[in-house]
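Q: Entry one of two.
A:
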Amino acid sequence: MTAPLTVVLPEAKAVKDMLTGLVGRPVSVTPGAPVTPTAKDPVSVAVYVGSSMAVHALCVMDLPLAAWTGGALALLPPGGVQDVVEEDGELTTMLTEALHEVVNVLSALFNVPGAPHSKLHASYAPGDDLPGDVAGMLAAFNRLDLAVEVPGYGKGRLSLVVP
């Protein structure tokens, strides 16, 4: 009898290396507070599933980090991205599309030897309504909570959750 395949949380260094390679800047990653959505603190949520469509993991980012990573990937001017965060409180269509690419690439963090394959199933921009089952999974205890700084853009928070 073999042990069942399980999805495991990545190490913080793997997250740092993945984000650094993705945005082409030396991203810093330190332990942080859990990212949870509130009316004043909207979050983006990426949902990763396996071949049976069971949810394997979630990637949760606060609005600033969603904007910083998307902006850095799309090579948008930091000042314009900062205006989106501080004045608009929601992502533009271009930032939402760039964020989708960021979280799609982050699926590789869960695809390690011995783990079942995970792929991006859905992504929700900050402020989007979340399905009830996904919202309920955000409180799971099997998680990695990080503070992330994208040089030239700013700091934000990221949580990876394995329900």
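Q: Entry two of two.
A:
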Amino acid sequence: MDNPGYTSLTRLSGLVREMSVVANNIANISTTGFRTEGIIFAEHVAHTGRDDPSLSMGTATGRSISAQQGALQRTGGEFDFAIEGEGFFLIDTVAGEALTRAGAFIRNDVGELVTPDGSRLLDQGGAPVFVPPNGGDLALAPDGTLSVGGQPLTVVGLYLPSDPLELSRQFGTAFVAESGYVPADNARVMQGFLEQSNVNAVAQISRMIEVQRAYELGQSFMDAEDNRIRDFLRTAGQRS
């Protein structure tokens, strides 16, 4: 394969990855706490020889996570929590600790607040949040202080990744940051609300159309290159 072929193939590979990401965003328009994901393309310019022009390669090098606030929907649920501002809940999943904005919790058989898939909500000290049954009304203050029957119980942990650029999706609405987490001092939490997905449906569908057109254009170029090489080989064979 020659240089134009490598360049187009690299670009097409990145577009396939972006189409997958965009499709996943659209599929999660109604998922509580879902964060829009994007693909980051980078250009790598390499010299092909002392007197030859350089070669530009566009590659999909990374992914970005949108920090845009999603709409808050009032549910009135006792264990429905929503974060306003930057920050995440810290949960204990089967794969380790993770961050999430999905605040629809339930109380399990032993009184711990967990996500629908069983991941435990953690407090500021990294311990599971335990809510005793029959302890009275549950109240959550904006700073995360959780009270039962008017008595402070614990403080729900709100965190930010130490390096936002390292934030990556673990699964669903859960994220991990390899560099660790720091307290989110400016976030506030609301009881009886859930944060909706921050996916902009119109923007994502528009991007899907753009990606599809770009892929078709790149595929057309590859087909033209293939035909050009076939014609050259056919002509060379007839002259030999």
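A: Comment on entry two: Residues 93 and 118 are 8 Å apart (CA to CA). The helical segments are 3-27, 201-239.
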